[in-house]
Structure formats: C-alpha cells, structure tokens
Amino acid sequence: MRMHRNTTDMIYAYLNQKGGVGKTTLSIHTAAELAKRGRRVLLIDADPQGSSLTWSNCREKALFTVVGMPKATLHKEIDLMVGDYDDVVIDGPPRVTELARSIILAADIVIIPIQPSPMDVWAAADTVDLVKEAQIYKPELRCVLAINRKIANTAIGRDVRTALAELEVPVLKHDIGQRVTFAETAANGSTVLDQRRSKARKEIEKHVNELRRIL
Ligand SMILES: Nc1ncnc2c1ncn2[C@@H]1O[C@H](COP(=O)(O)OP(=O)(O)OP(=O)(O)O)[C@@H](O)[C@H]1O
Ligand SMILES: [Mg+2]
C-alpha cells in the first residue's frame, strides 16, 4: 500500500478488454456492498461509455460518489482524488489501451470478470498479459479472475475452471450466476442488494468477502 494515499485502504479495478462481461455490473455492486458495510466509497467510471455514471444518474439519492475519469493519466491523478474514501472501485473500459494500463497502475487488485465461454477465456488473455507486464514493476499488484453469468448445471459452467487454468491467474472460488435481476435492478439505478431474498445478493456478498480476504 502506498503511504501518500493516507486513508484509502484499497483500490479495486474491474477490467477486461472484452465488452459486456460484467465490469460495470460488478463495479457497481462491489461499491454498493462496501458502502452498505459503512465504508466511504468512490466509484471511478473510467469507461468513456459512462455506464456507471448513467446508472448513478438514475438514482434519487446517491449510495456512493461516482466520478467519470476515462483518462490515461488516471494513475497520476488518483492519489489526489481518493483521500476522503476508504475504498475505491474503478470500472474499466473494454479494449486494451493506454487507459487500461493506467487503471492497472492505479489499482491494488485487478478483477477480470469472465463469462463461461471459450471465446471469453481467449479474449481475457490480453488483459492478463497487460497485468503480468505491470506486475514486473509492481509485484504487490494482485489479479484474480471472477466467473460471471454462470448458468447453473451446465457442462460449460463446470469446465470453465479447467479452461481458465491456462491463464495462470487465481480464480475466485465464488462465482456470480446468470440472473436477470442484475439487469432489472440496474434499469432504475438500484442494485440486487435492495432485494430481500435474492441469490444474486448473496453472491455479491460472497464476492466482496472473498476479495477482502485476499487483500
Ligand atoms: N450475472 C449477470 N446476470 C445477468 N445479466 C448480467 C450479469 N452480469 C452482467 N449482466 C448484464 O450483461 C450486460 C453487460 O454487463 P456490463 O455492462 O456490466 O458489462 P461490461 O463489461 O461493463 O460491458 P462494457 O464492456 O460494454 O463496459 C448488461 O446488460 C448487464 O445487465
Ligand atoms: Mg461497462
């Protein structure tokens, strides 16, 4: 952890050059879960599409601060932005670019969401390479894969872990299932955490617990 960050404990970055894998969904939910636990959270929307910002604009009352910063200078400016927060979550853009490099340099842990399909496993390799490149200079940087949109009781859902082994990055034990409630709740700026009895909510809680344990 860097000294000049003062009070900020952890910077989580959701990154994958592949589009639509769940970077925004998991960023918002991790931020919301941490905020629910009483932490002061900043969500940095580093995707020029601005999906996290749009989500937060749909809300009447903010759950946490969301700022847009799709700039490759993010890693140089982040220390000036995060002082008032306990945790920072960065929602990354699709594509491998200077911006993705900057996010990796800013992060303490890079979480790569992956859907259980061979195409997704192949596509994640570029993002993994980028992280491994950064780890040469920043050995304390953590990286994990997170299986998202897993469909229960399917062969591909079971086999994806074997396929992921070739990326040589640890895979989180707790997967996130394919649950339509993620899309439904997003439509009005809420999250699955607002639901009382929800498997999705439990999965997010376990996801965040596991990340906190790693760190
Ligand atoms: N576990 C899930 N179950 C069901 N739907 C999901 C799940 N995770 C994400 N989605 C849906 O999949 C779509 C893509 O998700 P999301 O926008 O989070 O991906 P992304 O990686 O941020 O995409 P982009 O690369 O375009 O920024 C959204 O419609 C979202 O609601
Ligand atoms: Mg997104």
Automatic annotation (TrEMBL):
Keyword Hydrolase: yes
Domain of life: Bacteria
Molecular function terms from GO: hydrolase activity
InterPro entries, per the entry: CobQ/CobB/MinD/ParA_Nub-bd_dom, DNA_Partitioning_ATPase, McdA, P-loop_NTPase
UniProt keyword list: Hydrolase
Gene3D superfamilies hit by this protein: P-loop containing nucleotide triphosphate hydrolases
Pfam families found in the cross-reference section: CbiA
Top EC class, one word: hydrolase
Chain ranges of the CobQ/CobB/MinD/ParA nucleotide binding domain: 14-192
Record-listed E.C. numbers: 3.6.-.-
Protein name as catalogued: MinD/ParA/CobQ/CobA-like protein
Organism: Rubripirellula lacrimiformis
